[in-house]
């Protein structure tokens, strides 16, 4: 099973977060259609992996989305929509879906599922096995380990630079190593997301 | 009879568990807020969390608005500095309404501690070499100059609000020399404002000069090295230094009000 359970500091203990990466998905149009139809069986955050630069980037968006949920100040309709919104730099949900969500042309997909268990109702909530069974059956792609190296293979940096306003940043110097540059770009991306709405 | 002082209530975000990581640690408290050392997302990623608790003496609506505006202002200043290449902590996450801001944890000691280690027990007049501390003064002047170059004044420059980030893989063995090496990282932008006027920049330097003289009286005469380095950071900097002479004569307040 390639469904990873993410542990994220400072979230309520009854929030379970699962994530998986699927490569070369052949049915993005189908998945996209389920989203548009608001099919409840597809209540996941489907992220276009080309819009993600690292685990840190992904986890930061999840953290922001779920602190909003914990605060009771959700601006999107569902926690999953809030996570997609949290990737963005403004408060426009449909904009965020267009940029970070899947489209009929998406190749690699990161799926995030949040399950909030309520006391006394544990058995009603979906188990990791059930979630995985559903995904494995309906997302037609190659399950891949959700590592920084695998995410990096999908990242479209040109798009990222545009979305997060990272072209011609004076703080990034020409002589830096690729590693140092990417690390600083990642820091600036996380900052941009954190500052959304100020 | 003494009753133990109850610990401060934690901001809600810190009441949730951190997987095997360490519990939040109260590092400092000021009049406005508290600083915790905790983790961001994962135990391997330390962070500083600044929390501005609600003030019971203020009207709740006003209080919420002020807290939100101040957290937002500080985050924006940090973002701007970082994009411009000034060494400041990166913002990791924030919730302006809840009054907290998570930032990069800067390793190392405050410049204040580094300078005090260097000065040690020795007497006033510099016996021996001064190269390393003169260089540190230069790096401080450079950091402040570049900060001002982004259109920001810090508002509370002291040697406690600058950190010395240790050099990775340093080969310095002498403890005193090691104490004053490292990159100068400016922290605590809680009072920072946007301004490009010579007046505001000169007052920023004046505050630092006064703080430096009272924190490190034995090193007071080295302050000129800081100013010299500051003067080289931009075309406007020499004008600020001229303004500083004016400010010294009259003090921090221009209007004599307030």
UniProtKB/TrEMBL annotation, chain A:
It is found in: Nucleus. One of its GO terms (biological process) is tRNA threonylcarbamoyladenosine modification. The keyword Transferase applies. One of its GO terms (cellular component) is EKC/KEOPS complex. Keywords: Kinase, Nucleus, Transferase, tRNA processing. One of its GO terms (molecular function) is kinase activity. Belongs to the CGI121/TPRKB family. Component of the EKC/KEOPS complex that is required for the formation of a threonylcarbamoyl group on adenosine at position 37 (t(6)A37) in tRNAs that read codons beginning with adenine. The complex is probably involved in the transfer of the threonylcarbamoyl moiety of threonylcarbamoyl-AMP (TC-AMP) to the N6 group of A37. CGI121 acts as an allosteric effector that regulates the t(6)A activity of the complex. The EKC/KEOPS complex also promotes both telomere uncapping and telomere elongation. The complex is required for efficient recruitment of transcriptional coactivators. This is EKC/KEOPS complex subunit CGI121. The lineage of its organism: Eukaryota, Fungi, Dikarya, Ascomycota, Pezizomycotina.
UniProtKB/TrEMBL annotation, chain B:
Component of the EKC/KEOPS complex that is required for the formation of a threonylcarbamoyl group on adenosine at position 37 (t(6)A37) in tRNAs that read codons beginning with adenine. The complex is probably involved in the transfer of the threonylcarbamoyl moiety of threonylcarbamoyl-AMP (TC-AMP) to the N6 group of A37. BUD32 has ATPase activity in the context of the EKC/KEOPS complex and likely plays a supporting role to the catalytic subunit KAE1. The EKC/KEOPS complex also promotes both telomere uncapping and telomere elongation. It comes from Schizothecium vesticola. PROSITE patterns: PROTEIN_KINASE_DOM, PROTEIN_KINASE_TYR. It is found in: Chromosome, Telomere; Cytoplasm; Nucleus. The keyword Flavoprotein does not apply. Its EC number is 2.7.11.1. InterPro entries: Bud32 (IPR022495), Kinase-like_dom_sf (IPR011009), Prot_kinase_dom (IPR000719), Tyr_kinase_AS (IPR008266). One of its GO terms (cellular component) is EKC/KEOPS complex. This is EKC/KEOPS complex subunit BUD32. GO terms for biological process: tRNA processing; tRNA threonylcarbamoyladenosine metabolic process. It is an enzyme of class 2 (transferase). It catalyses: L-threonyl-[protein] + ATP = O-phospho-L-threonyl-[protein] + ADP + H(+); L-seryl-[protein] + ATP = O-phospho-L-seryl-[protein] + ADP + H(+). GO terms for molecular function: ATP binding; hydrolase activity; protein serine/threonine kinase activity. The keyword Transferase applies. Belongs to the protein kinase superfamily. BUD32 family.
């Amino acid at each position: 099973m390639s469904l990873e359970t993410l542990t994220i500091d400072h979230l309520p203990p009854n929030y379970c977060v699962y994530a998986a990466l699927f490569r070369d998905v052949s049915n993005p149009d189908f998945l996209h259609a389920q989203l548009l139809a608001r099919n409840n069986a597809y209540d996941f955050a489907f992220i276009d992996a080309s819009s993600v630069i690292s685990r840190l980037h992904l986890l930061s968006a999840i953290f922001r989305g779920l602190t909003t949920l914990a605060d009771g100040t959700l601006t999107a309709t569902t926690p999953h929509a809030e996570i997609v919104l949290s990737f963005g730099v403004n408060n426009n949900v449909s904009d965020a879906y267009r940029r970070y969500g899947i489209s009929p042309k998406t190749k690699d997909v990161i799926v995030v599922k949040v399950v909030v268990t309520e006391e006394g109702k544990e058995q009603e909530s979906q188990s990791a096995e059930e979630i995985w069974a559903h995904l494995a059956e309906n997302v037609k792609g190659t399950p891949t380990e959700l590592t920084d190296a695998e995410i990096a293979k999908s990242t479209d940096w040109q798009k990222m630079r545009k979305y997060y306003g990272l072209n011609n940043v004076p703080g990034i110097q020409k002589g830096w190593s690729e590693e140092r540059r990417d690390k600083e770009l990642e820091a600036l991306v996380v900052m941009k997301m954190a500052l959304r709405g100020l | 009879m003494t009753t133990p002082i109850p610990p401060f209530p934690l901001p809600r975000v810190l009441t949730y568990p951190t997987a095997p990581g360490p519990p939040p640690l109260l590092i400092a408290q000021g009049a406005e807020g508290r600083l915790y050392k905790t983790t961001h997302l994962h135990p391997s990623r330390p962070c500083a969390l600044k929390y501005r608790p609600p003030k019971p003496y203020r009207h709740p609506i006003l209080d919420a608005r002020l807290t939100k505006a101040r957290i937002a202002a500080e985050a924006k200043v940090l973002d701007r500095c970082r994009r411009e290449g000034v060494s400041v902590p990166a913002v990791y996450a924030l919730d302006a309404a809840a009054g907290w801001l998570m930032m990069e944890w800067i390793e190392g000691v405050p410049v204040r501690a580094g300078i005090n280690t260097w000065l040690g027990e020795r007497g006033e007049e510099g016996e021996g070499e001064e190269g390393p501390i003169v260089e540190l003064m230069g790096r401080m002047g450079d950091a402040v100059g570049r900060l001002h170059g982004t259109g920001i004044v810090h508002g509370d420059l002291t040697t406690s609000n600058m950190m010395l980030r240790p050099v990775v893989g340093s080969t310095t063995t002498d403890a005193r020399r090691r104490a004053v090496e490292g990159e100068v990282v400016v922290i605590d932008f809680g009072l920072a404002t946007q301004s490009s006027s010579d007046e505001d920049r000169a007052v920023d330097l004046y505050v630092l000069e006064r703080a430096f003289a009272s924190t490190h009286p034995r090193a007071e005469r080295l302050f000129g090295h800081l100013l010299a380095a500051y003067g080289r950071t931009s075309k406007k900097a020499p004008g600020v230094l001229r303004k500083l002479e004016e400010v010294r004569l009259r003090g921090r307040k221009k209007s004599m009000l307030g």
